[in-house]
């Protein structure tokens, strides 16, 4: 009977080898793909219990999001120190979005886009992780330092809040023209990320549902996700195209007049007027046309430049593209395709189908301040180790040379005169030369108009470019909604915060 | 392999040493595993050494020393490796169950310690009462009948209860009991007794078809009977694992007894037929198969009409989470897997002790099987060979079925993991298996008495010599 027993031994050996091979496959080769399964509660629990890195702003590297020890079932609680002011930038971190990559279509803010760094899983933190493992310490996430200037952010938030009141809607973006750093980004209404980061999941679901169902859409980051007609602020693009094309210089006379009948149209629908502002007759100085925001002049100039060139110019500034990767999704600002002459005329004054995000208009302004170079906007300044050592710093990147440096300087002069002598006077800062442009976009017959304001300062050595967009200001009477009156003071406060820290 | 055929050839004059000192040394290591794991659980989960460490360790040490002393006196030549491996597995299982208790606020570990005490008691009792395992041949038909009664009991109206879809439990006065675990020991004894008597008839008669010796039609009776019993378990008790275990066990023993591969061909064909028929006839078999093939499709679907692979996938996540060296006791979440303390205890070990711990546990099972088959090889008579080989096969098959099911190598079937899983009937039955294996190896390794007048033994060794020469 020994021969079959030996055969059985071999058979058992095969059984055990198969078990060991399978368990090795499972625990060695398959392990990381199992850990990355979004349905794996262990991975979610672990990343949720971990001490996550902080999100820092400003010279003092003040944390605006940090993990503090918690006494409940998880070891750490995410805490947002200025919740409403920074909510649109930080986003929130809770049990439902703790797993990286669990939702690629959802809104992803710094907590999500920088999750690998904050959780410590990023390859750039490999050495730190290794040291932690060897010294038997609990791994700690890396820190993310933002480009946000806390003073500018505060000025933007408070300024916008004052104008909008408790139920208004609007957004502000401030950029550093030379680099593309986002110095401030505010969108109202805001929300409290602390409530969404709670460990009480039913509470989180309740708050999340009520935010989702809120008709004012507090979860929307209007600075990058809302496109609206930019109105008169788009005249900067039209002017840039005209100067860049060689049609005019800043000292030339441009078409003026109280009304302008768009080509191929008759009657009121095709008639452009200036709502009573002085735009002369015949030909007027370029500066006057911009100072008084003459619709007739720019509609006419847009047609002279032509739809194709105007669109090319808009695209050179960043329209019809995606360029912002630190937060997603980003709405694409659009300039209409194949516009005919009357449509081109309307587009030239920022109406018809032209749509822009506040970030896009800030980029247009920043490009003029930066000798015509459009910089890629970014929010993440530095990746840091848990010990706050710099691991990687974002390098500024030029997207395009939208206009020549000479065009840029001519536009700067024109825009300075708009602040000094024109509609944008609200943004004047004593002792500093400021360039700016107002905009009030009609939305239709019933709804109140959108108010815009763009500016940069100091004009000779720009440090900050701002775009303010007021979508809905219920506290302001409809007749008083104008870019200069509403947006000017906000822009001024932000510029002052940056220039005089 | 000289050791294995040495004693069968008295001319070589090889005499096994007792090796009780080695066993004691290994037992100290096994105790270190059990008590160390218990302490590690306390440190890992509660950050303190358990307050009852000395009481617990003392109890465990007492059981182990008692078992060792009895082996030393009544089975002095018994295999020195088996008892330490069994003790280490049992100790590790207790620690893991204790760890799950801390997570779930249950009290399985203390009950398991009581069951271990009962198990060691039966182990000692078996060794003391059963001085020669051949006595068991007298109970061939009795234990066969008892096994069938035990297997049928869960289907009886008052005592039988159904848990997790399998009718393999009986409940008397609040105590639940898995009779299948005891039945498997009974079946091995019955098969061994039957086959040692009828092996010649089964082995010699038959026809040769395509290089395979097929058995005679009338000899197919017992194999068909066993096949029907296995199918019955599958159909009426919905227990795929036990059905596979019993039929596989029977085939292995038939093959060892008759040395004819033809039985394996016939048996495997029957099993495949039965399994295929089961697949098409029974929804629960199909479901098991389906979630084995596509576990992630059926994970947390929230659809009650679909089969659920939650347990399987949660265990899979646990294994992945453990990785190479594991999370350490207290570092994982093994309690996320339903029934982690019984059927899925291996996933707890995989998660917290890692691949290293899993391979160590599998190697320990491998050692038990190897030691059992070695005892079968060196045993000088047919009944001992069949008994040891059968018991070894039971453990090998059971470990393969449960570990393969938990790790996704084969479809999942509900079986306990020997010595590790929480469960009284399983633990007690396995301790008896250990005692029987020690008894067989003790007689096999014992020096041959000078005057041997036992005809059967003489025949046996003569046969052996011829075979080795061949």
Automatic annotation (TrEMBL), chain A:
GO terms for cellular component: plasma membrane. One of its GO terms (molecular function) is penicillin binding. GO terms for biological process: cell wall organization. It comes from the Bacteria. Residues 170-496 form the Penicillin-binding protein transpeptidase domain. Residues 52-144 form the Penicillin binding protein A dimerisation domain. InterPro entries: Beta-lactam/transpept, Beta-lactam/transpept-like, PBPA_dimer, PCN-bd_Tpept. PANTHER family: PENICILLIN-BINDING PROTEIN 4B, PEPTIDOGLYCAN D,D-TRANSPEPTIDASE. This is Penicillin-binding protein 2.
From TrEMBL, chain B:
Pathway: Cell wall biogenesis; peptidoglycan biosynthesis. Keywords: Cell shape, Membrane, Transmembrane, Transmembrane helix. One of its GO terms (molecular function) is lipid-linked peptidoglycan transporter activity. Its EC number is 2.4.99.28. Pfam families: FTSW_RODA_SPOVE. It catalyses: [GlcNAc-(1->4)-Mur2Ac(oyl-L-Ala-gamma-D-Glu-L-Lys-D-Ala-D-Ala)](n)-di-trans,octa-cis-undecaprenyl diphosphate + beta-D-GlcNAc-(1->4)-Mur2Ac(oyl-L-Ala-gamma-D-Glu-L-Lys-D-Ala-D-Ala)-di-trans,octa-cis-undecaprenyl diphosphate = [GlcNAc-(1->4)-Mur2Ac(oyl-L-Ala-gamma-D-Glu-L-Lys-D-Ala-D-Ala)](n+1)-di-trans,octa-cis-undecaprenyl diphosphate + di-trans,octa-cis-undecaprenyl diphosphate + H(+). The chain crosses the membrane at residues 21-41, 53-74, 81-100, 112-130, 142-162, 182-198, 219-236, 242-258, 263-282, 344-365, 386-413, 419-438. GO terms for biological process: cell division; regulation of cell shape. One of its GO terms (cellular component) is cell division site. It is a multi-pass membrane protein. It is found in: Membrane. It is an enzyme of class 2 (transferase). InterPro entries: Cell_cycle_FtsW-rel_CS, FtsW/RodA. The keyword Membrane applies. This is peptidoglycan glycosyltransferase. It comes from Nocardioides acrostichi.
